């Protein structure tokens, strides 16, 4: 999620800023506890890549092998953060992206949203499993609830995805598929309590995201959206993650531990036609886990 205040910077911003809740990172043995890339064994599995976020930097590797990648994103800062992954096509680099972000208007065509872990509350870990092809990428945080967007404070980092060999890892087995459209969420089956893997598919013509929020007891999603409009008092819900901005036709996976209660899916991305957040077009849905 990113605030609609940065719509003019990049149409693909993930609108996390409405929830109150760097430069390239050189490989350094001091960071091995925080970031790891696990190669597949005899039975291929997704590589696990751990990334942490603080105020205001990512702690992440600067290069990983191509293939199915399970990003584990830990928000260690007191502020809200997320990890939007952008693919930089046509040989473009992080410096090219910085230059593009300094200009008003939509991003250039070579900037592609490819998802990533959406915003968890401080102290919470979110995740996203994605198939990455070789190329140049960027990790970026668009949150601007406490001032300028966090990428302007250092939360912008390059990521090289390099070719690799070996067996391909199978995709996760999803318990539920949630389809995103212009402008709705549709779950294939009701979500049951327990640890569940969600496949998120963007079937819309526009980019979309899914931010998962657990609502406070006695709070409806309408109450939560009214709070968003004024942001007075403590937030009546807890962000748990989900999937950051996905381009049309893309699919990605995330897992969450669903305890009984009321939840909401919300898309905060700005509309490519009128610039309003997609929740203003009705892309918000409450559901109950028993």
Oligomer: single chain
The rough form would be described as globular
- The beta-strand count equals 17
CATH superfamily of the largest domain: Cupredoxins -  blue copper proteins
Strand-residue proportion: 35-45%
Helicity, as a percent range? under 10%
Order of helices and strands: EEEEEHEEEEEEEEHEEEE
CA radius of gyration is 18 Å
Largest sheet: 5 strands, mixed
Low-pLDDT runs of 5+ residues are 2-42
Q: Report strand order across the widest sheet.
A: 3-9-8-5-6
Task: Report how far the terminal alpha carbons are from each other.
Answer: 27 Å
**CATH architecture designation of the largest domain:** Sandwich
Which fold name fills CATH's third level, the topology of the largest domain?
Immunoglobulin-like
Category by helix and strand content: mainly beta
The total of helices stands at 2
What would CATH call the class of the largest domain?
A: Mainly Beta
Rounded average pLDDT: 86
Could you give the topology of this structure?
Blueprint: E1 47-54, E2 57-59, E3 63-65, E4 67-75, E5 84-88, H1 94-101, E6 111-113, E7 125-132, E8 135-140, E9 156-162, E10 176-181, E11 184-187, E12 194-202, E13 208-215, H2 221-230, E14 237-246, E15 251-258, E16 261-266, E17 284-289
Parallel strand pairs: 1-4, 3-9, 10-12
Antiparallel strand pairs: 1-2, 4-7, 5-6, 5-8, 8-9, 10-11, 12-15, 13-14, 13-16, 16-17
């Amino acid at each position: 999620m990113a605030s609609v205040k940065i719509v003019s910077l990049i149409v693909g911003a993930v609108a996390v800023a409405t929830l109150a809740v760097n430069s390239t990172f050189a490989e350094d043995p001091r960071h091995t506890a925080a970031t790891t890339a696990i190669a597949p064994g005899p039975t291929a599995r997704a590589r696990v890549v751990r990334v942490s976020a603080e105020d205001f930097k990512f702690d992440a590797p600067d290069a990983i092998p191509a293939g199915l990648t399970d990003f584990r994103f830990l928000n260690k800062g007191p502020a809200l953060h997320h990890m939007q992954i952008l693919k930089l096509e046509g040989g473009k680099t992080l410096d090219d992206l910085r230059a593009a972000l300094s200009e008003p208007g939509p991003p250039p065509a070579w900037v592609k949203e490819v998802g990533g872990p959406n915003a968890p509350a401080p102290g919470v870990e979110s995740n996203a499993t994605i198939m990455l092809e070789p190329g140049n990428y960027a990790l970026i945080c668009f949150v601007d609830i406490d001032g300028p967007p966090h990428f302007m404070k250092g939360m912008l980092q390059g990521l090289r995805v390099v070719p690799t060999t070996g067996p391909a890892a199978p995709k996760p087995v999803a318990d539920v598929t949630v389809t995103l459209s212009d402008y709705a969420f549709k779950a294939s089956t009701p979500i049951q309590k327990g640890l569940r893997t969600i496949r998120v598919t963007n079937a819309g013509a526009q980019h979309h995201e899914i931010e998962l929020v657990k609502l406070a007891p006695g709070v409806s999603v309408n109450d939560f959206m009214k709070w968003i409009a004024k942001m007075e008092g403590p937030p009546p819900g807890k962000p748990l993650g989900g999937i950051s901005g996905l381009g049309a036709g893309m699919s990605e996976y995330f897992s969450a531990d669903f305890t009984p209660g009321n939840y909401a899916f919300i898309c905060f991305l700005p509309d490519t036609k009128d610039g309003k957040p997609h929740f203003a077009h009705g892309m918000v849905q409450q559901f109950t886990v028993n």
